[in-house]
Amino acid sequence: MPAISVNNVTKRYDDVVALDDVSFDIPEGEFVVILGPSGAGKSTLLRILNGLTPPTDGNVYIGDEPIGSARSEVGMVFQMHYLIENMSAYRNALTGALSRAGLVRSLLTWYDGQDKRNALEALDTVGLLDFAEQRAGSMSGGQKQRVGIARALVQNPDLLLADEPVSSLDPKAARDVMSYMKEAADERGLTTLASLHQVNIAREFGERFIGVRDGEVVFDGSREDLTMEV
Ligand code: ADP
Ligand code: ADP
């Protein structure tokens, strides 16, 4: 059974067709890069996979669970990191534990010891253990994205999604963030989809590449098949 199965997904916003009959399967543990220009439909696809927006047509399965059944945990890394700037890297990473626990627990209880160990382990995975107590607001753009990855890892996700995680970074920081994400995914056997628009950086880290343009899949292949035109 594939880790993710996207079947004939179409998404319309009024008269805009953001995704047009998109289908693909992703096996467990694969690191997939979604490539495509701005407006291609990458964010829409990731938002559907995360259950943030429903498809107009078609369906998505995570394992044998239809999306939205809330049985699978999906971790998400955003272009804008959405960290709480006044909290430490550690406290920010810890908030990942709230997603699984739900809002009620977040209001009523404290993090437990396991959450705290998970947060430290996740910071270690992204090379930030020594920065755990640093205020997120004082960190570099690349470090913030790495904290965002740690926060997603603390969710102990079945699936990791990253929507343009490095588009606001310079090439060096972008490579740095991507290599931590790839390592984290490899270490944990995590199925990962990351959207990128920089083909050069994508090529270095992706195992499989899905090219999207005008809401359609126009490419699906390995690094060897990847040309600069995607
Ligand atoms: P990007 O091109 O970097 O993916 P966009 O600027 O297209 O981002 O979109 C940013 C946000 O605005 C997204 O959450 C998207 O869903 C929303 N959005 C994009 N286009 C429209 C639109 N025409 N009407 C309303 N919301 C939109
Ligand atoms: P990408 O992430 O590749 O830049 P998006 O998924 O953000 O692409 O957008 C795909 C298309 O859907 C664009 O034409 C965008 O304007 C439109 N779109 C995205 N979100 C919305 C929205 N919430 N309302 C209306 N149109 C949207």
Automatic annotation (TrEMBL):
Task: Tell me which SUPFAM superfamilies the record gives.
Answer: P-loop containing nucleoside triphosphate hydrolases
InterPro entries named in the record = AAA+_ATPase, ABC_transporter-like_ATP-bd, ABC_transporter-like_CS, ABC_transpr_PhnC, MetN_ABC_transporter-like, P-loop_NTPase
Keywords in alphabetical order: ATP-binding, Cell membrane, Membrane, Nucleotide-binding, Translocase, Transport
What GO terms are given for molecular function? ATP binding
* Residues of the ABC transporter domain: 4-230
Q: Identify the Pfam families for this entry.
A: ABC_tran (PF00005)
Q: Which domain of life is it from?
A: Archaea
Q: Which SMART domains match?
A: AAA
Q: What is this protein called?
A: Phosphonate ABC transporter ATP-binding protein
Q: Which organism is it from?
A: Salinirubrum litoreum
